[in-house]
Amino acid sequence: MDQDFLRSTFAMSAKLEIDMKGETVTFQRTGSPDVSAQAKISGYIVDNLVGDIQQARREIRVMASDIPFDPPLKRGDKAKYGGRVLFVESVDAGTMALAGVLIVSVTG
Fold it and tell me: Would you place residue 55 in the very low, low, confident or very high pLDDT band (cuts 50, 70, 90)?
């Protein structure tokens, strides 16, 4: 199989999963207009920081083509959904780059 076929197949599969299982997330960056996109949110891991202080981590998968920021997402950006404000900690653009999916680690 050629790489263009694989790329388009992975992209269609990822987009379908996000559209079927995702929800609207609004991404914010200081100095840029807010951007809303369908994204799949998964995981809920609670880290105990100190004493009773806890921090929850989640993973958001979103199509890079749906985020017009340059770079698409980075540490310090915000993601809002369901009344929650989450903070982007890291972005893995390499793992599923072939499919055009950003894997974003958020806390909040």
Answer: low
